């Protein structure tokens, strides 16, 4: 089997459409984060903190963003993951093994690096902070820098990030659930099962589905498990092959996730006050900041690239002849853009507004920026190489809308 071999034409078109959507979402995410950072470090920082602490019903604006809006994000991620493994090119177990193994490697190594740096600091609770990859940011950077990169690399990054998010949800549910209340968790199975029963029968009526989804979210939230887990569970009940419901929900909710939910969370979560953290110099000397930056930049690159090499070393799979290991390194560096979920885990590990949470946020921001810059250097060089090849591979001699290379 060829690692990063050419996928099907339908999958190539779908990934291209998805990249265009995520590029816009990534830009909105960046703008929202910059506004939050700028406001939190301006003379009007008190107004920013007051806004984030405004109560809307039982939760503050920040809590609604982290617990409520991110559930929409994970619902879309869950749909994408199920689609990839049920109807996409990754329904072949041999193809699916690579991104899964790479995602695991890309989480284990950063966590180990953070733990080693913070062994004596008392901050081991934040070990999972540098393990996540931000789908919107990573795909946005890839779409801008890698316009001519092979689709297989884009599919790999997308799947890697989605699997990464699923593993992050497992980590949040298992390691960052401080108090578990079994009764609400068991009761959540009732609306979840009813939601699943309806969607399995092709029901699309929002006035039936939305209350059940909301009830599932409320009960999971009350159980002590992070409420975003409800989004993934709901997504996994949606059929992929029948009724087109997965595509329908993705079409409806992806713009809401990328254009509103994630940017609002970024605005509330990224607004760390550098002065409150003791200044940038003091933060850069803190073991939490160092651990997060090293985990994202070094850990992700070594973990993803190393796991990919191990797949080749111990299986019959081989890197596609048209690709270079520099392509894998470039994509692995993009995996170090950990923003949305990394910020969330940092808050869960250290508590919102604490000094260590502030240092973790600074580490996430700087580590993600450094990973993006290094990925840009590698991928721009590789992009020039593939630009020359693309002209040859885009020939459509029979004018049927499908390049000849996909019909050989």
Automatic annotation (TrEMBL):
**Where located?**
Cell inner membrane; Cell membrane
Reactions listed under catalytic activity: Na(+)(in) + 2 H(+)(out) = Na(+)(out) + 2 H(+)(in)
Keywords attached to this Swiss-Prot or TrEMBL record, sorted alphabetically, are: Antiport, Cell membrane, Ion transport, Membrane, Sodium, Sodium transport, Transmembrane, Transmembrane helix, Transport
Q: Name one GO molecular function term.
A: sodium:proton antiporter activity
**InterPro entries, per the entry:** Na/H_antiporter_dom_sf, NhaA
Q: Where are the transmembrane segments?
A: 21-41, 61-79, 100-119, 125-145, 157-176, 182-199, 206-221, 227-244, 256-282, 288-311, 323-350, 362-379
Taxonomic superkingdom: Bacteria
How is this protein situated with respect to the membrane? Multi-pass membrane protein
One Gene Ontology cellular component: plasma membrane
Would I find Kinase among this entry's keywords? Answer: no
Asked if the Swiss-Prot or TrEMBL record annotates the protein with the keyword Membrane, the reply is: yes
User: What NCBIfam families does its record include?
Assistant: NhaA (TIGR00773)
Recorded hits in PANTHER family, A to Z, give: NA(+)_H(+) ANTIPORTER NHAA, SODIUM ION/PROTON ANTIPORTER NHAA-RELATED
What is the purpose of this protein?
Na(+)/H(+) antiporter that extrudes sodium in exchange for external protons.
> What family is this?
Belongs to the NhaA Na(+)/H(+) (TC 2.A.33) antiporter family.
- Protein name (Swiss-Prot/TrEMBL): Na(+)/H(+) antiporter NhaA
State the organism named in the record: Actinoplanes digitatis
Question: What's the source species' lineage?
Answer: Bacteria, Bacillati, Actinomycetota, Actinomycetes, Micromonosporales
């Amino acid at each position: 089997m060829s690692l990063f071999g050419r996928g099907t034409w339908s999958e190539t078109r779908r990934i291209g459409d998805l990249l265009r959507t995520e590029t816009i979402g990534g830009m909105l995410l960046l703008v929202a984060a910059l506004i939050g950072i700028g406001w939190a470090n301006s003379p009007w920082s008190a107004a920013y903190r007051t806004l984030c602490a405004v109560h809307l019903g039982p939760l503050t604006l920040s809590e609604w963003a982290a617990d409520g809006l991110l559930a929409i994000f994970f619902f879309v991620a869950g749909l994408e993951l199920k689609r990839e493994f049920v109807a996409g090119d990754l329904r072949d177990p041999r193809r699916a093994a690579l991104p899964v193994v790479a995602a695991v490697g890309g989480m284990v190594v950063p966590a180990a690096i953070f733990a080693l740096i913070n062994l004596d600091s008392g901050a081991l609770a934040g070990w999972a902070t540098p393990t996540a990859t931000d789908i919107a940011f990573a795909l946005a950077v890839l779409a801008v820098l890698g316009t001519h990169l092979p689709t297989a690399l884009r599919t790999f990054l997308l799947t890697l990030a989605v699997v990464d998010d699923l593993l992050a949800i497992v980590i949040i549910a298992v390691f960052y659930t401080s108090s578990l209340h079994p009764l609400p968790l068991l009761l959540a199975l009732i609306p979840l099962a009813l939601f699943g029963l309806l969607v399995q029968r092709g029901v699309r009526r929002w006035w039936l589905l939305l209350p059940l989804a909301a009830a599932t979210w409320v009960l999971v939230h009350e159980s002590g498990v992070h409420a975003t887990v409800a989004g993934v569970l709901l997504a996994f009940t949606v059929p992929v092959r029948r009724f087109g419901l997965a595509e329908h929900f993705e079409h409806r909710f992806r713009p809401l996730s990328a254009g509103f939910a994630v940017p609002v969370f970024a605005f509330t979560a990224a607004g760390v006050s550098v002065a409150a953290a003791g200044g940038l110099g003091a933060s850069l000397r803190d073991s939490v900041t160092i651990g997060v930056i090293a985990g994202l930049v070094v850990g992700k690159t070594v973990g993803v690239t190393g796991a990919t090499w191990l797949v080749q070393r111990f299986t019959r799979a081989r890197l596609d002849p048209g690709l270079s290991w520099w392509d894998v390194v470039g994509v692995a560096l993009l995996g170090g853009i950990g923003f949305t979920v990394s910020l969330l885990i940092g808050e869960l590990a250290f508590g919102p507004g604490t000094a260590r949470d502030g240092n973790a946020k600074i580490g996430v921001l700087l580590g993600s920026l450094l990973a993006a810059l290094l990925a840009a250097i590698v991928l721009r060089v590789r992009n020039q190489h593939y630009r020359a090849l693309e002209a040859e591979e885009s020939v459509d001699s029979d004018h049927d809308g499908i390049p000849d290379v996909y019909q050989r």
